[in-house]
């Protein structure tokens, strides 16, 4: 059974940092690209970041570029989204996802986690 479990969300103030984790089980982690998406109330799910099988290649949405960093530790079957300089507009439920095609910038991932809430107050 494939599981993706996000953690690390919470309530922070603007300018603070958070690190989200995505722990993956039930699949060969090194054969899957990992992506992060977010969805704010009343809005569509949007792409945040993605990372390749090896972790060498990453891509980011323009809205988070320079503030967020996606990494993975394959030995731990875990991906990390470091979020710095958080803004109120970053408030959303954040989801991690996995797909054997590698890097995807669209929500067509095969497996998804349940999400973790991030709230940034002004």
Keywords:
122 residues, mainly beta, seven-stranded mixed β-sheet, four-stranded antiparallel β-sheet, 11 strands, 0% helix, globular
Characterize the structure shown.
With 122 residues, the chain is mainly beta. It contains no helices and 11 strands. Strands 2, 4, 5, 6, 9, 10 and 11 form a 7-stranded mixed beta sheet that branches. A 4-stranded antiparallel beta sheet has the order 1-3-8-7, with no helix packed on it. A hairpin with a 6-residue loop joins strand 5 (46-51) and strand 6. It is globular, with a radius of gyration of 13 Å. The model has no long low-confidence stretch (mean pLDDT 97).
Question: Helix/strand-derived class?
Answer: mainly beta
| Beta-strand share of residues | over 45%
Tally of DSSP helical segments = 0
Helicity level, as a percent range? under 10%
CA-CA gap between termini: 40 Å
In short:
This protein is mainly beta and 122 residues long. The chain contains no helices and eleven strands.
Present the secondary structure layout.
Layout lengths: L2 E5 L2 E4 L4 E8 L7 E7 L6 E6 L6 E3 L7 E6 L4 E6 L8 E8 L11 E2 L3 E6 L1
Parallel strand pairs: 2-11
Antiparallel strand pairs: 1-3, 3-8, 4-5, 4-9, 5-6, 7-8, 9-10, 9-11
């Amino acid at each position: 059974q494939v599981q993706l479990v996000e953690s690390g969300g919470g309530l922070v103030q603007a300018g603070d940092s958070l690190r989200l984790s995505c722990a993956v089980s039930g699949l060969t982690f090194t054969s899957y690209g990992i992506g992060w998406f977010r969805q704010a109330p009343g809005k569509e799910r949007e792409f945040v970041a993605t990372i390749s099988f090896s972790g060498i290649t990453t891509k980011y949405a323009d809205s988070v570029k320079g503030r967020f960093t996606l990494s993975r530790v394959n030995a731990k079957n875990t991906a990390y989204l470091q979020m710095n300089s958080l803004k109120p507009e970053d408030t959303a439920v954040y989801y991690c996802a996995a797909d054997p095609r590698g890097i995807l910038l669209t929500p067509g991932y095969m497996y998804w986690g349940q999400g973790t809430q991030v709230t940034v107050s002004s």
